[in-house]
């Protein structure tokens, strides 16, 4: 039976090597170590216990990836949400076939029109309300939007 | 209290929804080519939807707005600017006295409509403010606008006054202020794209050769340069009758597609004659007349046949849409 320190040593070595997948069978004990992209879970609570558990179970690389994800989640809470001003149908461009008002990664100013919401044949412009970079577009053309729903995520300047 | 014409443009004339009730006396209907755009322009500024508005064709005028006014520009995009700044279309725009409204390059469609809150102060002739250009009656002195003309504007009242006051409060010292919403509209034809126009069969459809009937619905037609407010002449396909047809002149309507002996069809529009003796191969669906009116000479169209029931269904749906839009706009001013 391997000791905790031995397991840690193995993980460390694998992490520093180019090995992607490692399996060891010894005296009925099986260890499997792999470097995999960690799938993100939305709204992961930032739980130190959870983080420790991860440390003990996964390789350092995986931990780094995980913490990067967590950092993103933390940052995410600082992202500005552009909220819907009405109930209506989402359109990213002024008319079919036209260029969208904004694209991913685009810098916007407070009065930049980011989309239109159609209600009763009237198209309502939605302004960014903040300066920053568009990092996520949460609706597609033709989708129905509720009042107050987040439409875009903007990383403030 | 007025608008001064600095440059008249190619053909800028006063129009409304037409002069109905006098065709039996040989008086043509006239009115806006694109009645949808005219109606929406008036609705936006709080006027009655059939109020007179300026129809601005292909090459727009330069106008001086001599009084603080609420206006709306709809129809084809003729690059309107106020004091050099691009004016958004299909929405109410409040402008300060002394502003210069100028139209430029034709970006889409070919006819813009300019409505002003309160309406233009003109006498109605036979119940209409439309200009009957050939007869020289109605509108502004029965003719297209000329340089130096001064158009009187009525004081806004009721809804048009409320809306003018609303935007006046929002006004900051810029050249103009407009709403953050705009009215929906049917697609405005682009110059280089083929536009599909829906039609029903005309009264004499069956008298045409099988080839002509097939070509009518499958070939594309070019709108000839000599097209005008009376009608669009189409070229590209020669439509022929099975055998010569002796016809007594009978009523024609907005959107009637008639075929003279040379085989090139003509679509009758706002300034159409009251009766015609040429066989009628088709009838443009009324909802597509405003789209057709925005097709520029030189551009191409194709016909798509629909049933009378479908044309009627589209018409009712369009009218419902306009009512919905009217309500939505009213709600914006509560």
From TrEMBL, chain A:
**This protein's pathway:** Lipid metabolism; fatty acid biosynthesis
Q: Which residues form the Lipoyl-binding domain?
A: 79-155
The terms describing its cellular component in GO are: acetyl-CoA carboxylase complex
> May I ask which residue range the UniProt record assigns to the signal sequence?
none
Going by the UniProt record, its keywords in alphabetical order are: Biotin, Fatty acid biosynthesis, Fatty acid metabolism, Lipid biosynthesis, Lipid metabolism
- Biological-process GO terms, alphabetical: fatty acid biosynthetic process
CDD domains linked: biotinyl_domain
**Molecular function as annotated in GO:** acetyl-CoA carboxylase activity
Q: Which PANTHER family match?
A: OXALOACETATE DECARBOXYLASE ALPHA CHAIN
Give the protein's biological function. Answer: This protein is a component of the acetyl coenzyme A carboxylase complex; first, biotin carboxylase catalyzes the carboxylation of the carrier protein and then the transcarboxylase transfers the carboxyl group to form malonyl-CoA.
Q: What is this protein called?
A: Biotin carboxyl carrier protein of acetyl-CoA carboxylase
Taxonomic lineage is: Bacteria, Bacillati, Bacillota, Negativicutes, Selenomonadales
From TrEMBL, chain B:
- State the Gene3D superfamilies in the record: Cyclophilin-like (2.40.100.10)
Question: NCBIfam families, alphabetically?
Answer: urea_amlyse_rel
Protein name, please? Answer: Urea amidolyase related protein
Asked if the keyword Lyase belongs to this entry, the reply reads yes
Q: Which Pfam families match?
A: CT_A_B
**Top EC class per UniProt?**
ligase
Classification via PANTHER family: 5-OXOPROLINASE SUBUNIT C
Q: Which InterPro entries match?
A: CT_A_B, Cyclophilin-like_dom_sf, PxpC
What keywords sit in the KW lines?
ATP-binding, Hydrolase, Ligase, Lyase, Nucleotide-binding
**Which one of the record's GO molecular function terms can you name?**
lyase activity
The cross-references to SUPFAM superfamilies, in alphabetical order and at most eight, read: Cyclophilin-like
Q: What is the lineage of its organism?
A: Bacteria, Bacillati, Bacillota, Negativicutes, Selenomonadales
Question: Per the UniProt record, which EC number(s) apply here?
Answer: 6.3.4.6
* Domain Carboxyltransferase: from-to ranges: 24-321
């Amino acid at each position: 039976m391997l000791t905790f320190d031995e397991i840690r040593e193995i993980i460390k070595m694998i992490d520093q090597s180019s090995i992607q997948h490692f399996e060891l069978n010894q005296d009925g004990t099986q260890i499997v170590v792999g470097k995999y992209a960690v799938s993100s879970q939305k709204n992961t609570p930032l739980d130190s216990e959870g983080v420790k558990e991860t440390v003990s179970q996964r390789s350092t690389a995986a931990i780094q990836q995980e913490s990067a994800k967590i950092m993103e989640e933390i940052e995410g809470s600082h992202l500005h949400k552009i909220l819907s001003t009405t109930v209506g149908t989402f359109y990213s461009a002024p008319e079919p076939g036209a260029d969208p008002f904004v694209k991913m990664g685009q810098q916007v100013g407070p009065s930049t029109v980011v989309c239109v919401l159609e209600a009763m044949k009237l198209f309502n412009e939605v302004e960014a309300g903040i300066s920053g970079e568009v990092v996520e577009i949460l609706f597609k053309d033709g989708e129905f939007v509720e009042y107050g729903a987040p439409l875009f995520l903007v990383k403030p300047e | 209290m007025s608008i001064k014409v600095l440059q008249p443009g190619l053909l800028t004339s006063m129009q409304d929804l037409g002069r109905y009730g006098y065709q039996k006396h040989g008086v043509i209907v006239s009115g806006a080519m694109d009645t949808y755009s005219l109606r929406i322009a008036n609705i936006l500024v709080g006027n009655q939807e059939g109020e007179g508005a300026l129809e601005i064709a292909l090459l727009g005028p330069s106008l001086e707005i001599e009084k603080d006014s609420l206006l709306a520009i709809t129809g084809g995009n003729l690059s309107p600017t106020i004091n050099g700044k691009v004016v958004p279309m299909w929405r109410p725009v409040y402008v300060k006295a002394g502003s210069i409204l100028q139209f430029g390059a034709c970006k889409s469609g070919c006819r813009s409509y300019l409505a002003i809150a309160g309406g233009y102060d003109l006498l109605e002739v036979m119940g209409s403010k439309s200009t009957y250009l050939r007869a020289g009656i109605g509108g502004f002195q029965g003719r297209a606008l000329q340089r130096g003309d001064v158009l009187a504007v009525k004081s806004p009242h009721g809804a048009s006054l409320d809306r003018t006051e609303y935007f006046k409060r929002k006004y900051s010292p810029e050249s103009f202020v407009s709403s953050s919403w705009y009215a929906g509209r049917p697609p405005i034809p682009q110059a280089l794209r083929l536009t599909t126009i829906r039609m029903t069969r005309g009264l004499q459809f069956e008298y045409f050769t099988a080839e002509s009937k097939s070509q009518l619905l499958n070939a594309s037609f070019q709108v000839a340069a000599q097209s005008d407010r009376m009608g669009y002449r189409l070229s590209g396909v020669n439509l022929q009758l099975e055998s010569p047809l002796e016809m007594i002149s009978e009523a024609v309507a907005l959107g009637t597609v008639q075929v003279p002996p040379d085989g090139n069809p003509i679509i009758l529009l706002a300034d159409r004659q009251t009766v015609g003796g040429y066989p009628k191969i088709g009838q443009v669906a009324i909802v597509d007349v405003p789209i057709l009116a925005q097709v520029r000479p030189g551009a191409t169209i194709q016909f798509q046949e629909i049933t009378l029931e479908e044309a009627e269904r589209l018409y009712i749906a369009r009218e419902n849409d306009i009512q919905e839009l009217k309500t939505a706009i009213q709600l914006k001013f509560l």
